Amino acid sequence: xxxxxxxxxxxxxxxxxxxxxxxxxxxxxxxxxxxxxxxxxxxxxxxxxxxxxxxxxxxxxxxxxxxxxxxxxxxxxxxxxxxxxxxxxxxxxxxxxxxxxxxxxxxxxxxxxxxxxxxxxxxxxxxxxxxxxxxxxxxxxxxxxxxxxxxxxxxxxxxxxxxxxxxxxxxxxxxxxxxxxxxxxxxxxxxxxxxxxxxxxxxxxxxxxxxxxxxxxxxxxxxxxxxxxxxxxxxxxxxxxxxxxxxxxxxxxxxxxxxxxxxxxxxxxxxxxxxxxxxxxxxxxxxxxxxxxxxxxxxxxxxxxxxxxxxxxxxxxxxxxxxxxxxxxxxxxxxxxxxxxxxxxxxxxxxxxxxxxxxxxxxxxxxxxxxxxxxxxxxxxxxxxxxxxxxxxxxxxxxxxxxxxxxxxxxxxxxxxxxxxxxxxxxxxxxxxxxxxxxxxxxxxxxxxxxxxxx
Length: 455
Known about the structure:
Layout: H1 3-7, E1 8-9, E2 14-15, H2 18-21, H3 23-34, E3 39-43, E4 52-58, E5 61-67, E6 73-77, E7 92-94, E8 97-99, E9 106-108, E10 113-115, H4 119-123, E11 139-143, E12 146-150, H5 158-162, H6 166-173, E13 183-185, E14 190-194, H7 199-207, H8 216-221, H9 233-238, E15 240-246, E16 251-257, H10 272-289, E17 295-296, E18 299-302, E19 306-309, E20 315-321, E21 327-336, H11 341-354, H12 360-374, E22 386-387, E23 396-401, E24 404-412, H13 421-435, H14 439-442, H15 450-454
Antiparallel strand pairs: 1-2, 2-22, 3-12, 4-5, 4-7, 5-6, 8-9, 9-10, 11-12, 13-21, 14-21, 15-16, 15-24, 16-17, 16-18, 18-19, 19-20, 20-21, 23-24
Helix pairs in contact: 3-13, 7-13
């Protein structure tokens, strides 16, 4: 199927509704996108001790993130090799073995098959247990505590997969003061389902700045902890607002760049301990990061289905596909591991109020995705493509503002308010995955002339 020729027409700024509602396209996505891409699985703070596990997902596959007795981290397919039953039916916990409740095969936390009922009688002691352990992912990466995996052994390393998007993931995982890998997850993961295709939320968090009308009521109420809107509104108002896309990777984000010498204004004044903590962190960040401290995080998307919010609320959202007409949303919330408990408790309340299924903004988004998807499933509706024409042809390569270089394709939307470059970048990469035969075709950056790749 000619995805780029017939369904994703970037030159015209049009995307067919078929890619959201067609079950055959959805089935092909599972093989060509989710079986080949790097996917977020969890965080090592969820499994601090040997035997700890967390049941996650990779596309439609249930997987187990666990730490074995030697403290090594693994990701296994949550499916018994005998008849396919889930060997772990709990969300998280600690165990020495995973025992299938169907026929009783049991597996160690390093994946080995260690127990087979009636091994001597039924199998005559001939079953080669070394060949029937849990299926493990082809590659795993622990990046600053975040755990990523892929089923494709030929995929590039995770760091290569990120490319120039690394600095934006770092804002999520490093400490608020700029120290590396200081983030940890607050306990619990919010999970809920929405009757829409997974690409609706993925596109939205790629950088949709055009839907502010949806959150008008939230802005009018002023739900920020200082009582006057978002916590980071002050620095946003004095920054340059950018759409940043990494075209050969398919990642994109909204980001703000503070003017040189500008410090974020005070916030959280109604909570003195919290206010002092962030004042101290902002000052330390200037020392630790230098010019990079001028980057102010905002929504972004690591292709295909991991959304970031690297300021407050500081979260990750994963869009797990559950058929062409449903997505299961998981939201993880981050805090600095050494922040005072009062700060963590304060942020927990704010995060829940702002994001997630009970959050004021997420409810707006869910209603949009639900109704847009339902209204696109009919025979007549599917004849008419969606429009993605904002900002076509206006991106610049390697934008620079007061000495800070921002790599990638960038549109400065400070004055024009919105473009649809992030969505176009997302669907361009989606179409490439759907058409490419292997990673040699997907890793296009490897084929650029050496001089161009070094620029």
